[in-house]
Amino acid sequence: MAVRLVRGRRREPDPRSDAELMIALCKGDDQSFTEIIRRFQDPVYSLLIRMLGNEDEAEELLQVTFCRVHRYREHYDTSRPLITWVLTIASNLAKKEWRRRSRWLQIPLDNVTLTSPMQTAPHYDAGRRELKASLEEAIDKLPPHYREPFLLREDQQLTYEEISEVLGIRIGTVKSRINRARALLREALSEAWERWK
Amino acid sequence: MFHALALLAAVAAGVTSSPVVTIRREGSPGITELTTGIAISSHHVITLSAFAAGPSVPLVEVDGQYLEPDTVYSSEGLGLAILVFDGRPFTSYASPAGSLPESGDLLTLAGQGVGGLVSIGGRVMRIYEDGAVLVSAPRMDGLMGAGAFDSDDELVGLVNGVITTRLESTPAGSAEHLAILPSPSWSVWADLVMAGRWASSTPFGVTATACSSEDADERPSGVLIVAVDDGSTACRCGLRPGDLVVSLDGERIYNPETMRGLLLSAGDSLDAVVWFHGNSRTIKLAPLR
Amino acid sequence: MNCRDALRLMDSVMDGTAGPEQEQVLHFHLAGCQACKRAMQMNRDISRLCREMPRPEPPSDLESRIRARLAALPAEVHAEHRRRNRVAIALPFVAALLIVLGLTLGSRPGTTAVDAAEAVRKVAVAAQGAAKYTVTTPPLAAYARPASLISF
User: Fold this and answer.
1) Chain B (22-61) residues lying within 8 Å, Cβ to Cβ, of chain A
2) Mean pLDDT value across residues C25-48
3) Measured between beta carbons, which residues in chain A are less than 8 angstroms from residue B90?
4) CATH class of residue range B199-285
5) Residue C30 lies in a domain
6) Which of C97, C134, C143, C149 to mutate to test the interface with B (most CBs of B within 10 A)?
7) Which of A10, A172, A183, C102 has the least CB density, counted as fewest CB within 10 Å?
């Protein structure tokens, strides 16, 4: 009896560049869309969940983002980084959601369930965990217009130019908002940081 | 104009919320005065101090209800007041712009007129010699105290009057511009009020006023020191009556409230450029605690 | 260099946009200023902790959900959007006038006849209510510099 060896979804990494994937998608290559989703689902989800504060909305907008990437694939400028284009779409969707539900409020951290396991050393470092937890809370308390550029810098490691593209604001504004975000975080975490040090 | 009316309809239909709020007061008996305030946090509204002055309490409209502020912080020096509220009633708020706009920038002026939200565009013409930003825009109902926003939706300042300047080139011989009190003049004060850190334990020891170069030909605009207390910090730093503080920490200042705010939020001594009878000197001012 | 400039320069140094001379200037300031040194350390620690923060995982069936959505959508609507925008831009004053008169605009994007009429009705009611008792707004006054003395 022949046994079909199920190899599972262990992919070899697709060697094509982001721009090549988009060009292929425009030509009708369906497989490239799978790869695009695979490459960008984490950063987009991460941004959405930290901007919206709950899983359900983040998942919904995550799907809509990729739908738009597919539908407006012809609009993508291949000379620009794909990550900024995708994040711009996601960011605008999040902003519309904010405005629609008038939610420039602080969302408590309880609504966010982070499913990845935290890497903890065998000897439990209480001080560090406390600072980390306080940090997440403090970031969630940042007003959205400070939180977003801060996340794009620290979480997504985008340059100031890329952030300015994604958010549609001047580079000077990006700098001053990141500066404010860091100042607000320093104020909020001052005690926890002292204890951790 | 289309955009303004569309916004008007949208706000009337309850579709969008805006940091521009209505302040309602009783002016003379039987007369209701509607003025503009701008929410700068979930529980702070900034407005011209004239709109928050007594005896009638300023009430802010939120979702059809009129809320009374818990506290009102007024700065006579700036002509601004901040209303502080219990709870967090404002779902949409603006953040003050970090720098002055540039000549040629297009700003959106938004205020509460009698019929509702008024929103028009205005172009920045120049910075006036006492720090005000001059904007060309038509006179309209609801623009006194209106918020001026830049293309990033940040609050550039509040409209606090009309300036008429002499211009030979125009047929009328003069031009009218709206004056905006820009955020660098008041954002430090506003931040301190919002953080609740406005009080200082020791006074700096000066009495000062805003002074403009219009009043005396040779003198620049700045903060004029009128009196210095003996033995005070100001005295020890070298300030004397008649000194005109022109810049602090590298930035032009025009108002004693700005000076106080900068000294209160400084971590270290600040460099001050001081003008006196045609001579400039630089001294170090110790921070206020 | 004052502390406010130092705090701004700190961001540039951390984000890799400052030149070597600027970094030198900052380090010189940090050597003599405890407050800024502490701020820099905090900034660095916060940045590092951000990178170590657990990343939330998107749902495993994301792709199939996306493909299902795409399949359910109607055919491309780009052309339609473009046409609609052009109509809206070309008729600003007419459209405004029509809104005020409460008439419906068949091709105005995003607003049905019912919505436009409702919005007009609300504004009209507000204006009517205003007429019952006297409502004023402060006039644009001549600019006057606040000339009060303050002591601090």
Assistant:
1) 42
2) 92
3) 104
4) mainly beta
5) yes
6) C143
7) A10
C27 CA to chain A: closest CA distance, Å? Answer: 18
Residue at token pair 């509220």: B85
For residue A188, the enclosing domain spans 124-197
Q: Tens of pLDDT along A45-97? A: 999 999 888 888 899 999 999 998 998 888 888 888 899 999 988 988 887 77
Question: What is the Cα–Cα distance from B141 to B152, expressed in whole angstroms?
Answer: 25
- Asked if C69 reaches chain B (Cβ–Cβ under 8 Å), the answer is no
* CB nearest A105 (choices: B16, B91, B99): B91
Testing the interface with C: which of A52, A182, A189 to mutate, by most C Cβ within 10 A? A182
- Asked if the Cβ–Cβ distance from B31 to C135 is below 8 Å, we say yes
Give pLDDT tens digits for C76-90. Answer: 544 334 333 333 333
The structure's pTM equals: 0.52
- Quote the CA–CA distance of C84 and C110 in Å, as a whole number: 10
Which domain-ending residue is among C18, C35, C52? Answer: C52
ipTM: 0.74
Q: What share of chain B is helix, strand, coil (3-state, %, to 5)?
A: 15, 40, 45
Is it the case that residue A3 has pLDDT exceeding 70? no
Tell me the pairing of strands B31-41 and C134-136.
parallel
Asked whether the beta carbons of residue C78 and residue A178 sit closer than 8 angstroms, the reply is no
A97, A144 in Cβ contact below 8 A?
no
Q: Which of C2, C95, C122 sits opposite B12 (nearest CB)?
A: C122
C105 near B CB under 8 A: no
Please state which CATH class domain B106-185 belongs to.
Answer: mainly beta
pLDDT in tens, A119-177: 333 333 556 667 777 888 888 888 777 889 999 999 989 999 899 888 877 788 788 88
Is the residue at C124 inside a domain?
A: yes
Check if B88 contacts A (Cβ < 8 Å).
Answer: yes
My answer on whether A79 and A130 are in the same domain is no
Mean pLDDT per block of 10 residues along chain B (289 residues) reads 44 63 80 90 92 84 83 89 89 84 89 86 87 88 91 90 77 82 90 82 89 72 92 92 90 89 84 90 89
Chain B nearest CA to C136, separation (Å): 5
User: Residue B225 phi/psi, 5° resolution?
Assistant: -85, 120
Tell me the residues of chain B between 259 and 288 that have a Cβ less than 8 Å away from chain A. Answer: none
Band of pLDDT at residue C129, cut at 50, 70 and 90? very low
Query: Helices C3-14 and A171-196, interaxial angle, to 10°?
Result: 100
If DSSP codes are grouped into helix, strand and coil, which group holds residue B225?
A: strand
Number of separate domains in chain C: 2
All structural domains of chain B with their residue ranges? 106-185, 199-285
Chain A contact partners (≥3 CB pairs within 8 A): B, C
Contacts of A68 in chain C (CB under 8 A): none
**Contact criterion met (CB below 8 Å) for A77 and A18:** no
Q: Which pLDDT does position C95 carry in this prediction? A: 40
Q: Is residue A118 part of a domain?
A: no
What are φ and ψ of residue B94, in 5° steps? -105, 150
